[in-house]
């Protein structure tokens, strides 16, 4: 058995490998760049070695430095994790040539599966079904256009050396082919140094189904069943689950047998994943599932397979790399229950999923679920690497139970000030098609903004925030000790600034003096908001108490959402005022009728101008 292990990676996967190695009594060595000097994986390892500047190309992608670190620390083996050098056959060979153990497949297997066109030809020869298409050497644009016409539109152009959605274009008609091909080739050349492409039939109701395979150095290969990774955004996986919904036993048997044939065709050793594309327009059928590619490494989503099989795949990797046989035979592997994984990223869905970097001043993740993470509160999300914060993994006896558990885990997520996709994940889990198992890779693209826009805060939330900011010890702002003055107006209005810039005006009992600005963080279904108290204004001639809706400041009316005589509900948006380069929403203080409406779109108004009046409904 390996006694010492260097992990040639960082973040979540490095921490994951260290955890299993420690349980096995294996000494661990971490490597780190300048940006990761204080990272969690560095502190978890028994020893850590600095390997260069923050940029990955100057640290985590410099194989010679990693091998030198292993030699200097006496590590016997190198585990590459995923990403970085994990599928670099040259690096794998260099590790072996240095007299170290490579915890991964043979370099020849990596090479065989590294180019999509060659891999598909190999799979065809092994009796593995592949997507109809052209995978030849002729890269003449006119010839490729002819092949696309023979295959039939829509088609998918894919870089043969591609991955992660780069160098990939869907083309719906012959008129669009030339431009799409040129764009795809440029991107492929820039990303992979290889502009060759293949053309394949585009599946209109595609599902991404993959099979976990595992081989040892004694010639045995098993599968650990399938995962469904169909929930994707721009070809990047978002939520994964195992087993695949709608998969019957006969289809599973054929699919998994094909995956084992694929692994045996390249004399595979270690953990690998055979990825398939399924045409789910008529449900999952074995004759409509085709090989896409093989990932010759551990996958990000491997925890869902671990949860349904009870297997620690990292432990298997270390045992197989040490020369042991597979710990279990195929007939000893079974599916138990359901598992789901959501990838929590530091990104802002409302801003086009742009990465959100900075210090994790506040970080709370579910204590009820499995959390695989490489960060902690007070740590930083760096601009140099993948912005994953954590993988949140839930299980259940049934798919519905797993969905409910994962939704609860997302709801428990609290991250600030870094933005995350937690709210987006929560909405995906609640989507009717996902709940019904009717998923395909286009679901997220079709839903668009509906999945990313945070819900508007309701009046109860605003009142609770105002109570907290103004010093109330309870949740009822009307009971706040706000210093009422004899002869003063009976109400005051607290102006709450949301971090988005929106100002909310909430009625309060009047205070004796302005309160100092403080902040309240609110986490609701994965969405995060911060409120600060701008000021408390009192002594107004009218207030929401008598239904008068007043302008809180000079500005311009940019939208009026109601009409005179209209019935409105408490908290309903009435109009929007633009002031100080920000939009401010005014809402109904109670259920009632719009009995007066003076606001008109485009009108400039002064502070305390009467904009509308609501007559309260009889109780």
Would you write up a description of this structure?
By secondary structure, the chain is α+β, with helices and mostly antiparallel strands. The chain folds into 4 domains: 4-103, Rossmann fold; 133-201, 2-Layer Sandwich (Dna Ligase, domain 1); 206-451, 2-Layer Sandwich (D-amino Acid Aminotransferase, Chain A, domain 1), CATH 3.30.470.20; 459-616, RNA polymerase II/Efflux pump adaptor protein, barrel-sandwich hybrid domain (OB fold (Dihydrolipoamide Acetyltransferase, E2P)). Helices cover 26% and strands 32% of the residues. The protein is built from 16 helices and 35 strands. Helix 4 runs antiparallel to helix 5 and helix 12 (399-411) runs antiparallel to helix 13. It starts with a strand and ends with a strand.
Q: Indicate the mean pLDDT.
A: 90
* CATH homologous group name of the largest domain: ATP-grasp fold, B domain
Which radius of gyration do the C-alpha atoms yield?
Answer: 29 Å
Distance between the ends = 76 Å
> How much helicity do the residues have?
25-40%
Main β sheet profile:
8 strands, antiparallel
Counting helices, strands and paired strands, the structural category is alpha+beta
User: What is the CATH topology of the largest domain?
Assistant: D-amino Acid Aminotransferase, Chain A, domain 1
* Overall body shape: globular
How many β-strands, per DSSP? 35
The CATH class of the largest domain? Alpha Beta
Strand order of the largest sheet: 14-13-10-11-12-15-22-20
Number of helices: 16
User: What is the annotated CATH architecture of the largest domain?
Assistant: 2-Layer Sandwich
- Domain count: the total is 4
Q: What proportion strand? A: 25-35%
Low-pLDDT ranges: 472-490, 510-516, 539-545
């Amino acid at each position: 058995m390996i006694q010492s292990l260097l992990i040639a990676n960082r973040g979540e996967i490095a921490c994951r490998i260290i955890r299993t190695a420690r349980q096995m009594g294996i000494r661990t060595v971490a490597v780190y760049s300048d940006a990761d000097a204080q990272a969690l994986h560095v502190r978890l390892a028994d020893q850590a070695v600095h390997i260069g500047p923050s940029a990955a190309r100057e640290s985590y992608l410099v194989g010679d430095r990693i091998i030198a670190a292993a030699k200097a620390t006496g590590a016997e083996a190198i585990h590459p994790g995923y990403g970085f050098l994990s599928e670099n056959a040259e690096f794998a060979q260099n590790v072996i040539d240095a007299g170290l153990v490579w915890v991964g497949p043979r370099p020849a297997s990596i090479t065989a599966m590294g180019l999509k066109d060659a891999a598909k030809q190999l799979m065809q020869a092994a009796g593995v079904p592949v997507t109809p298409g052209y995978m030849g050497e002729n890269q003449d644009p006119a010839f490729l256009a002819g092949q696309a016409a023979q295959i039939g539109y829509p088609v998918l152009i894919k870089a043969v050396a591609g991955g992660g959605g780069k160098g990939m274009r869907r083309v719906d008609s012959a008129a669009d082919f030339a431009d799409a091909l040129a764009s795809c080739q440029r991107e492929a050349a820039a990303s992979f140094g290889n502009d060759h492409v293949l053309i394949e039939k585009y599946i209109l109701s595609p599902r991404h189904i993959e099979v976990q395979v595992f081989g040892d150095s004694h010639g045995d290969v098993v599968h650990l069943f399938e995962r469904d990774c169909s929930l994707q955004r721009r070809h990047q996986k978002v939520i994964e689950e195992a087993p695949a919904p709608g998969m019957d036993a006969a289809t599973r048997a054929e699919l998994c047998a094909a995956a084992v044939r694929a692994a045996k065709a390249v004399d595979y050793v270690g953990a690998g994943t055979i990825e398939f594309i399924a045409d789910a327009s008529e449900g999952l059928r074995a004759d409509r599932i085709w090989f896409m590619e093989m990932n010759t490494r551990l996958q990000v989503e491997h925890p869902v397979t671990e949860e349904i099989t009870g297997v620690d795949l990292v432990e298997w990797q270390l045992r197989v790399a040490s020369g042991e046989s597979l710990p279990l035979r195929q007939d000893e592997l079974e599916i138990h229950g359901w598992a789901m994984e959501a990838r929590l990223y530091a990104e802002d869905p409302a801003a086009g999923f742009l990465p959100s970097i900075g210090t994790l001043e506040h970080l709370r993740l579910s204590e009820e679920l499995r959390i695989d993470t490489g960060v902690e509160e007070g740590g930083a999300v760096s601009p140099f690497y993948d912005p994953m914060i954590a993988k949140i993994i839930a299980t259940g006896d049934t798919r519905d139970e797993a969905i409910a558990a994962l939704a609860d885990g997302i709801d428990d997520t609290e991250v600030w000030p870094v933005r995350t996709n937690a709210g987006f994940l929560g909405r995906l889990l609640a989507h009717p098609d996902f709940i019904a198992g009717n998923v395909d890779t286009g679901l997220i693209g079709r839903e668009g903004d509906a999945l990313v826009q945070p819900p508007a805060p309701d009046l109860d939330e605003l009142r609770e925030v105002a109570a907290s900011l103004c010093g109330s010890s309870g949740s009822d702002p009307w009971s706040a000790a706000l210093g009422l003055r004899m002869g003063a107006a009976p109400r005051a209005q607290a102006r709450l600034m949301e971090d988005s810039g929106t100002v909310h005006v909430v009625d309060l009992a009047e205070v004796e003096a302005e309160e100092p600005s403080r902040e309240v963080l609110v986490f609701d279904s994965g969405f995060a908001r911060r409120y600060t108290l701008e000021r408390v204004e009192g002594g107004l001639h009218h207030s929401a108490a008598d239904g008068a809706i007043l302008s809180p400041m000079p500005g311009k009316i940019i939208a009026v959402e109601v009409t005179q005589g209209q019935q409105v509900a408490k908290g309903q948006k009435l109009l929007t005022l633009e002031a100080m380069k920000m939009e401010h929403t005014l809402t109904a203080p109670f259920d009632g009728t719009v009995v007066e409406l003076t606001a008109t779109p485009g009108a400039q108004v002064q502070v305390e101008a009467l904009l509308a009046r609501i007559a309260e409904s009889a109780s």
